[in-house]
Design a protein that fits this description.
3-stranded antiparallel β-sheet, alpha+beta, 9 strands
């Protein structure tokens, strides 16, 4: 099941683990990415806190934690090749996996149709 935030992150939920990345819309708005900085495995993230940083030829932008949890895995492939985020933002270019403190908090996030309404 996919969920979305108003800040353009997506989450794929599997039990209490959420795979997190940025949406296709966000990747298109950013343009060609040249740098990705991910959180450390074991980092405790707080909802709406800074989780990662991306830089494009246009600007730098923060990626926010969609929910509270602990980082269990990061995607080194997008650090090594940031252009993956542009080519497959909602697939191979996930950013990190988060063990959610309260998986039910994901119920408050946007579903796909609500996200599409948001971005118009």
């Amino acid at each position: 099941m996919l969920k979305f935030t108003p800040e353009h992150e997506w989450l794929k939920l599997e039990g209490d683990i959420a795979t997190v990345g940025i949406t296709t819309h966000a990747a298109e708005q950013l343009g060609d990415l040249v740098f990705v900085e991910l959180p450390e495995v074991g980092a405790e993230l707080t909802k709406d806190g800074n989780a990662a940083t991306v830089e494009s030829v246009k600007a730098a932008s923060d990626v926010y934690a969609p929910l509270d949890g602990e980082v269990t895995e990061v995607n080194q492939a997008i650090v090594d090749d940031p252009s993956l985020v542009n080519s497959d933002p909602q697939g191979a270019a996930w950013f990190f996996k988060l063990k959610l403190k309260n998986p039910s908090d994901a119920d408050a996030l946007l579903d796909e149709s609500a996200y599409k309404d948001l971005i118009g």
